[in-house]
Specification:
Layout: H1 2-20, H2 25-34, H3 46-53, H4 100-106, E1 116-118, H5 127-134, E2 142-144, H6 152-161, E3 166-168, E4 170-173, E5 176-179, E6 184-186, H7 199-202, E7 213-215, E8 235-237, E9 258-260, E10 280-282, E11 302-304, H8 313-322, E12 327-329, H9 344-355, H10 380-396
Parallel strand pairs: 1-2, 2-3, 6-7, 7-8, 8-9, 9-10, 10-11, 11-12
Antiparallel strand pairs: 4-5
Helix pairs in contact: 1-2
Length: 397
Amino acid sequence: MKKLIALLLISGVCTVLGACGNATDDEIFQAYQTIDLNVSVNQITGEYINQKFYSNPPEEKIVIDASDVDIPVEASETDSYSNPYPGYLPEEVDKTGWTASQVLDLYWDQRDTIDFIDLSKYPVPDVTEFVHKLRNFTALTQVDMCDTGLTVQQMNAINEAFPDFDIIFNFRVSYWNLRTDRQAFSTYQGNVIVYKWTSADAMNFRYCKDLYALDLGHNAIGSLDFLEYCPNLRILILADNYGIKDLSPIEYCPKLQYVEVFMESFTDISVFAKCPDLLDLNVCYTQFTDLSPLYGLQHLERLWMVGCWKMPAEQKTEMMEIFPNLVLNTYHPGSTDWGWREHPRYYAMRNTFASDTLNELFFEEPTTITNATNPDWVDPNAVIEEEVTDENENGED
């Protein structure tokens, strides 16, 4: 009898998993192993699955102080090192089982000229020896040290010890394994909520110096302090976290051009006055009370602020007087309805996350998109005017 109940229950679980996204064999097996026979089929909902199988582990405090990591200051004596394979190119040598320090020996004769070395997947059992040796490579601009077995704190300490070149390493958050040379990152994984990022998780982006686009929408972000380390961001998506009350750290991201922060708890948007390149801003269903900080944004083209009931109505009129060509949506109920996702920069944003390369529409200078370049563009204001005209005509009849 219990086996029959279990089969019925797992069938319900698989149905819900399928509704949330494509269930893998591992998910189905996990569901079968951990299903509670006291839970009825009717109780197996999407919320139950998310809590049962996709709940976050206990949040760990991320340590960013590397003072306890001993990093040598001086280079070691060069007489003690040499290339063990003179006459061979490094790629011609079988380096199976080697350490990162041994790989450096292969490049010893090029230590004054080589600008890049790939040390990924080579372990570093002796950090002191490795750093002593690395200090002799004076022409380096970049070193790849992903998957070397060192902790994030050790890698950060090594990185800070060599300010003249970039050291690429990787860090883990849940099942994400991220390299520090990422240009774009999004937590979006379809409609299945596998893990919700926290503000502590996001602090790892302090190591990503080349990050241009970041999507942390639909997570558990509260504090935006991590943005202090993301000065090059052009794209920022923080929608639907429901815990963001203070936007002030956005001041560290003056190059922002595309921002989605709808469905949040903040009451002040004055920080956007420090983002002069803003082109697209979506603040739907938020609690801000003053629109005037946006009056000086000369490049602003699209502003979505549906459901912002605390904003004085007259400020909408003032905004349109200042920006007669602004596409302003305050009517249609959906946060992304009526053209927000039908604009060239929206597709350029999606392309940026898919390719991990900043799309050309978000380069240094803000790129203006006219309606003429986008025949599918729907102007919400024009739609409203048409609706009002139709109503008037029907009333006259």
